[in-house]
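Bit of a strange request maybe. I'm writing a small parser for structure token strings and I need a real example to test against, not something I typed by hand. Could someone generate the tokens for this chain?
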Amino acid sequence: MVVIRLFDYEIIIQNIVITGSFSDCIDLGAANSKLEGSKCNWRRFPGLVFKLRVPSATFLLFRSGKFVCTGTTSEAQGREAITNFLKRLKTEALVSNNCTYESCVKNLVASVAIAGVTISLEQFTNQFESALYEPDKFPAAIYKMDQTKATFLVFLTGKLICSGIANEEELKSTVKKFYDQLIEKSTIEKS
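Reply from user aminoacidic:
Good idea to test on real output. This should exercise your parser:
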């Protein structure tokens, strides 16, 4: 069987969510006073929010040393942000010089642009049974792909948002599989 690609698509990672933990516990009160720009509201949230400038990333930090890093656009950039944040914590004497960390990517959020197409969202929801489309509430159809953790937002303009994938190779293969399904079920049209 020969497959002819009718359209091209581009995947751009917009955000990576990394979770992890430092080997030391952290005094969040001291961290809040020493880390310029940090924010906390103990009544509403049990952690500290800190925005790192280089590379640009936002951290949620907890007393146990656990953290969430978000806002980077590659796994390498995320590791760099965590390393820079750990250096900052060591410089401010908030952790010991022997402090290390472990981390893993939990989620990639990517935009996908299919060039020169529109997607009939009514036809899409008819062809993809588990898709949800309520145009009076949200301008995109929501589709949770079977046998994966991926969730797609599907827009009329041919744009997609994909989330729920934890690595770049899986992201590429999942987007390709979904793109092939869109073509197979004739839900995309040249604009």
